[in-house]
Amino acid sequence: MEAGTELAQKAASGDPKVGLRAVAALRQLAERLEILQVQRARQLGWSWQEIAGRLGVTKQTVHRKHGGRFRER
Fold first, then answer.
1. Among candidates 54, 55, 52, 53, which has minimal Cα distance to 63?
2. What is the pLDDT of residues 3-59, one digit of tens each?
């Protein structure tokens, strides 16, 4: 996967073929980073409400998306 800054530059390309490919790659990168950070937050004892607040979504949304992914302590 290309570096995030390179992808961001390509996403602004005047060529939609290049730009859209970069947007899709950025979306995949953001998803992977979200999973990683939610896992870290849960390991550190963060509540679903705290995580949701940082992500700008509801507690239900973040729990529905990630709740089954990690073992509860």
1. 52
2. 778 998 999 999 999 999 999 999 999 999 999 999 999 999 999 999 999 999 999
1 pLDDT higher than 80: no
Burial 48-64 (b: 16+ CB within 10 A, else e): beebbeebeeeeeebbe
Per the structure, how many domains does the chain have? 1
Instruction: Report how far apart, in Å, the C-alpha atoms of 64 and of each of 5, 24, 46 are.
Output: 30, 23, 16
Residue 20's domain spans which residues?
4-66
